[in-house]
Structures are given as C-alpha cells and as structure tokens.
Amino acid sequence: MPVSMMNKLKQQKLLSLTVLLFTLATGILIGTLIDRGVSADTKSAVAPDATPLVVPPVSQIGNEFTRLAKKLEPSVVYITAESAPPKESANSGSQNRGKQQQQQRARPRSGSGDEDEEEDPQGNLFDFFRQNPFGQGQPRQQFRRGQSGTGFIVDRNGYIITNNHVVEKMDKIQVTLHGDTTKYKAKLIGTDVETDLAVIKIEAKNLVPVTIGNSDGVQVGDWSVAIGSPFGLEATVTAGIISATGRDLDGAQAFQKFLQTDAAINPGNSGGPLLNTRGEMIGVNTMIATRSGAYEGIGFALPSNMAVKVYNSIIQNGRVTRGYIGITWNRRQKPETLKAMGLESGVFVEQVTKGGPAEKAGLRENDIIVLLNGKPVKDGNDLVNRVADLPVGSAANVTVDRDGKRVDHKLIIGDREEGMRAQNGIPESIKEEPPITEVGTPAKFGISIRELSGEERDALSTPEKKGVRVAKVEEGSFAEEIGMQEGDVVIWVNRQPTGSLDDIRKVQAKLKPGDAVAFGVMRPNPTSRRLQYVRVTLSGTLTAQ
After folding, report:
1. What is the C-alpha to C-alpha distance for residues 334 and 488, in angstroms, rounded to an integer?
2. Number of helices followed by number of strands (H, E) in the chain
3. CATH class as words, domain 447-541
4. Residue 280's beta-bridge partner residues?
5. Which of 85-94, 181-190, 386-395, 468-477 has the lowest mean pLDDT?
6. Quick check: 275 and 227 in contact, CB under 8 A?
C-alpha cells in the first residue's frame, strides 16, 4: 500500500511537471512568433506611422430619391427594336425616299398653325443620312437596323408607353424588365406621330405600373427625376429641376408643349418617365437640346396629361383622332397684328384649305377667329387644342371678325389626319395585303402585295399595263431566295396573268411544295432618272414555309 501510494505521488508530480513545462514552452513559442511578426511588420511597412483604415458597419443613409428609385425601377423597361434591310434597287430606294419626304410633309409642322406647313429645321440633316453617298444610280449596301430606348408600364396587363421614334417602322420589338434577363416580344398597339408616342404590349406576370401624375400641377423649380437606359445602361437614375413648362420648340409638332428639365437625358432615355418626388409620372422624356448629340443640360418631356389623352385614344381606337377645320395661321404672329385691327386676342386666318370644313362654312382669308362655340379664342395654340378635342363629324360654331364686323359660321369638324393628307396633296395610302396564303394551301411565296398606282401602271411597257406590286419580301422566304425585291411588279406566274390580288391567290392555290414556279417581273430600272421598268424572270422550286 505505501509503495503504491508513493508511485501515485511520483506519477502526479511527473504529470504536473510535464504540464508546467508544456505550458512554458507554448508561451515561449507564441511570444517568439508574435515578436518576430511585429518585427517583420515593422521592417516591411512602407508607412509604419500610418493607421490602417477600418470599414464601418453597413449603414444606408437614404433620401427621397433613393426611395423613389427603388419604387420605380420595376416599372421602367428597356426596349430594343430591329428592322430588316429593304430589298430594293437604287431607283426603288429613291422612290421610297420620295415617299418618306411626302409623309414628312403630311405631318403638321411648327411654322404655322392648325395646318402647319413649315419644314423641320433638322430635316436636311436627317435626309442626308438617308441618301446614298455613292451616287443615285448605284445600289447601297443594306444592314439590319436596330435601335433602343426606354418605356414604362402603365397597366398590369402589359401595356407600355414609349416614344414613337423608338419603335417606328421596326419589325421586331423586345422588352427587358428590370432584374429579369428575359426578352419579352412586344406587340405594337398604336402610335401617334404628332406627340411622338407609342403604345406596346407584352405578356408577362407581376408587372408594376407607374402612378400617373397631373402635369398641370408642375411648377418651375420642382424637383424632377428621369429613369431610363441612356446608351443602353439600364435603370439609370438622374435628378434635376423643372426649368420651364409649356415650352414651344421650333421643329416640334403642334401638340408638343414640353416640360423642360435639367435632369440628365441622353440617347436611350427616349420614352422613359419623368417623375416628381412623389414618384408620379409627370412627363415622357422625348428630346434634348444639344450641339454634341449628348446631354448639355436641357431636356424635354411631353406632359403626362397629353400622354394620358393619347394613350386612351390608342387603346380605344388604335390611333388618335383629332378635330380639324382647315385653316393656316402664323404661329409667330406678333401682338401688333391683332392690335392694329382693334383686337386683343384671336387667330388671324392666313389661308383657308380648299374643300375643308372652314371653306365649306364660308370662312375667308384675313378673317380673325375670335370665338369657338361661344368662348373666346386666346391664340392659335388655344384654337388648335380645342378643335382637336372636338368629335369628328360634330357641329361647331365659329365667330370671326371680318372687316370689323362679327360674323357667325357653323361648320362640321373634320378628321385632322385626313385633312392634312388632302391639304398636302398626298393620296390615301394604298392598302397592302398580308402575305398571300390560301387557306389549306401549304405553299407560300413570302411576299406582301398591293394594287398598282396610276403612275406605276402608266410606266409599264406591257400592252395590258396590269400587275401587282411587291410591297414587302419576307426574310428567309421563297421569294427572297429567288431574288424577288420590294418594288417588283409581278405580271404573270407560270404564264398566268396576274393583274390583281385575286389572280395571284388563284395561281398559288394550285401550287404545292416541290412545284417549279416562274415569275414574270417588271423591275424598276436603277439607271433611269424616271420610273421605268425592265423585264426580269425569276424561278425556283417551291418549298414548304
């Protein structure tokens, strides 16, 4: 027993000594390492007397702009649009440019009033880019055209407002939502050239529409926020103030009276919302004043009240219908003009459109319109806006000052679009047929066709002077494969005359994939200065489309 106790005591002492020695060794080792580390740090530091910086805990400051951006980002979308290059010869390209120039003249300009005639001062620049720099008689190399812009959701069912110039004449429109890489295919619902607005629609779920504000309450000096995709940089937020309201610009359309802001707006912001600090949409960003092509401190947005009016008309009718009376007035009319005639307000009629509502009602040049439906007319803009709001076909009472005497006239309000077309000498557009496909027939040519105009028919060298004009050739179609072009006139298919749309359909109904098809075509002569055709025969084996 004593021996066993002694052994235990020896073992305990040995264990204690071992623990003590291990503890001392560990402490010495740690101290040595720390000393060497400090020494090494001291020797390697570039600035030994500098205090290292410390990143503080996350703390978000936040303000009205921060909350507004988070709220609105899901409602603002990025839009891309593409169009295929036209299949045309140099001569047909010249014809298309002439058509574009006619269409431009059909649009009201800002130089005169209800039926403006002044050309856009930037028109020559834009025309330059549309022209062929290599000469009129040579074909141009064509590329697929693409552009981008911004839009904003106004309805949970997928309706979006943007600028017309973002989607105009585009074949393919796609929309990207914030935080979603999916590209949604968009359908064009309608456009309005005179306010540069368009409505498109996508099929998507959980959409968040913007809150609509009342632009009549906007004041100079109010904060304004723009959200968009300048240069393709999505969800870019900029802020500024309202610099002016009701801004009337040279080159703008008659119904474009802008909010001016110094919030940064750049290419790609087009169609995005301008917001107040409550997050309400008060305008649609449309254009900038610039010499460089980028932001220089002056941007313009169409007021929300006008945008709402246009949107409601488009979703109801597919287009905007406005009233028209058929007069021309000077937008830059000086106050002295009326004062010299003893009047303080009114609209001096410089020209009455032949065959228009005003002429039919008896209005004359040099009349001064002073009342519309019994209410005073302040100026030309007041007259245009009030006439535009009147239903087409309704009766209106117009009082004029004629040689110092009041004369009343009753006229019937016309359709502005039709009236402008007639005033500018542009005929009704010829209806284009959809790609010709007979029900139950698998054979497709892949073209859109229309009847010939009188000029085109007269230019044909065939005795019958009959045919149908190719208005469009579908990309990747049978017609494209055999070399058919926009502007071609098809005079026969497999020796069967095609003097009408029905003739084409009848021939097509007898064809099936695998059949050989030959087309007799009259093609515009690219070397001729006037419209002339040359004969071309195109053929191929019809494939299933």
Report:
1. 52
2. 13, 29
3. mainly beta
4. 211
5. 85-94
6. yes
Residue 540's identity, in one-letter code, is G
- Answer whether residue 127 shows pLDDT above 80: no
Q: Which residue has the tokens 């703390």?
A: 59
pTM for this model (two decimals): 0.60
Confidence of residue 508 (pLDDT cuts 50, 70, 90): confident
Give the pLDDT of residue 367: 92
Q: Are strands 280-288 and 211-212 parallel, antiparallel or unpaired?
A: parallel
| Cβ 266 vs Cβ 231: under 8 Å | yes
In the structure encoding, which two tokens stand for residue 122, read together?
């930037």
The DSSP call for residue 1 is -
477, amino acid identity: S
**Lookup: tokens for 312:** 């409601």
Q: Which two tokens stand for residue 403?
A: 């040689």
C-alpha to C-alpha distance for 484 and 157, rounded to whole angstroms: 40
Contact between 166 and 149 under an 8 Å Cβ cutoff? The reply is: yes
Specify burial of residue 9 (Cβ count, 10 A radius: 0-12, 13-18, 19+).
exposed
Residues 445, 48 contacting (CB under 8 angstroms): no
Q: Which listed residue (270, 304, 448, 477) is catalytic?
A: 270
- 269's tokens: 């912001």
pLDDT in tens, 321-346: 899 999 988 877 778 788 888 888 99
Q: Residues 285, 273: contact at Cβ < 8 Å?
A: yes
Secondary structure, 3-state, 470-499: EEEECCCCHHHHCCCCCCCEEEEECCEECC
Count of other CB atoms within 10 angstroms of residue 56:
6
d(CA 166, CA 147): 7
CA-to-CA distance for 384 and 321, rounded, in angstroms? 13
- Three-class SS of residue 112? strand
For residue 165, indicate whether it is catalytic.
yes
Q: Is 458 a catalytic residue?
A: no
| Contact call for residues 161 and 197 (beta carbons, < 8 A) | yes
Return d(Cα 545, Cα 525) in angstroms, integer. Answer: 31
Region of 476 please: left (phi>0), alpha (psi -120 to 50) or beta.
left
Q: Which of 92, 165, 243, 477 is catalytic?
A: 165
d(CA 145, CA 270): 18
What does the pLDDT read at residue 111? 37
> Is 461 part of the annotated catalytic residue set?
no
Per-residue pLDDT, 138: 38
Q: Where are the beta strands (DSSP E) in 289-394?
A: 299-303, 323-324, 327-328, 347-348, 351-352, 368-372, 375-376
- 3-state SS assignment for residue 432: coil
Greatest Cα pair distance, the chain, in angstroms, is 146
* 357/359 Cα distance (integer angstroms): 6
For residue 521, give the nearest of 491, 495, 477, 493 by alpha carbon.
491
Per-residue pLDDT reduced to its tens digit, 62-121:
778 888 888 899 999 999 998 866 554 444 444 444 444 434 333 333 334 444 333 333
- Among the listed residues 114, 116, 196, 401, the single catalytic one is 196
Q: Which residues contact 137 (CB under 8 A, 6 or more apart)?
A: 90, 526, 527
Structure tokens at 237: 């937020």
